[in-house]
Amino acid sequence: MKGNKENFDAVIIGSGIGGLVTASQLAAKGAKVLVLEKYIIPGGSGGSFKRKGYTFDVGASMIFGFGEKGYTNLLTRALKDVNEKCETIPDPVQLEYHLPNNFSISVDREYEEYIGKLSDRFPQEKEGIRKFYGTCTQVFKCLDSMPLLSIEDPAYLLKVFFKAPLSCLGLARWLPINAGDVARKFIKDPELLKFIDIECFCWSVMPALKTPMINAGMVFTDRHAGGINYPKGGVGVIAEKLVNGIEKLGSKIRYKANVTEILLKDKKAVGVKLSNGEEIQSKIIVSNSTRWDTFGLNNNDKGLVAKEFVPKNEHKWSKTYKPSPSFVSIHLGVEGELINKNFNCHHIIVEDWEKLENEKGVIFISIPTLLDSSLAPDGKHIIHAFTPSSLSEWDNLSREEYIAKKENYYSFLIEKISKIIPKLDKYIDHKEIGTPRTHRKFLGRFEGSYGPIPSKKLLGLLPMPFNSTNIENLYCVGDSCFPGQGLNAVAFSGYACAHKIGSKLKINDFKLPN
After folding, report:
1. How many whole angstroms from its chain centre is CA 10?
2. What is the per-residue pLDDT across 311-334, written as a single tens digit (0 to 9) for each?
């Protein structure tokens, strides 16, 4: 079956935030774009779903990039570029940690308040704490002072350098460095170093020694600068508004459009083929699938690119990085009286430092209705909790074994959450349980993973691939590209991808963004 003859400047496979930012940026530059999404709603792990009056976020509810000033607030900027805006609700606390040795601390929006509490817990490390987090601030200031939207375009980089030479030099210094190396330069206390590990792990799914310093500098400072701001109506509103902006500019998104193959001619990408046999031609193809799914890496059954055309460097990448664990998630609707109105929205529980990277080693908890009550029926709250779990734990189970294991994980999570929210099991109105198999099925991601993590310690961000591939006219976007995981990070990837494509199509504005 052949498709229609409508011409598109770019076809984007997948409507995760990286794909949507790429599409919206290209549309804003005047390109005609088609986004193909295999599911029925946009956003991927940055989407939302509704059940019985509840609006549940698919992934995490702790969102960076929604401040108002500077260049690091990429979600705010991406929406503005297509004449859209999300109403947001500021969170006074990024999260509250519940850690071994009766160590509990909340990360306040106010920097000095947080640093003061951490210094009270580790008075002998007071100077080291200030030096470490102060270094993070230096990195953030470099990022926030210049419109660094692409590092693949030498001409653009030169313009950025002339605008902010010191920031560029400062940023280049930190590209090969990991946060754990910087922490160990200033801090000796093993418990405090473990704490910095969980500070990184909660958003990078890696301890500090494997977390790039540039990413850490961004997160550890932006939470006090732009702050954590929740989009009113749920995280899925971000994707919905990007889609609105894309469509108003004349581009399109199609749902239930499952791409099974990227079409090549003379070793160039020329189009895509859908599961129904339809073929769509385009000058540019962008894959918002993971690199494992795009190129059929790590024993993946079949990639979108035929095996004989997969570039050698993609196989090298798959040896350098491995999929992060997936998660077992529970989405609960609970009686409102269970939650004190002064309770913090986001929590992390770690009971054993040695099991930090293990199955069930960390429990993440979010109660977004503390910020936006409209997400639940009157008198109700939402609790979203998840813990790392690998697909290998869930494969080769019978239907009965699978259901029993889901209930075991559910009971485990309820028990752990009950340590900070007592009697939880008595107040549950609705429940949903998702496993790595659920994430693989609905998000279309290899092993249900939430992105790549280094197989061993690497030099900061330097080994991360950019948007270009060794197949002409084929680009990648999302957490498999620089700078990695997280909504703001994949938004950066989308900006960079659109800039690179814009250069090829000759539609980029010569001026730097304001």
Report:
1. 23
2. 999 999 999 999 999 999 999 999
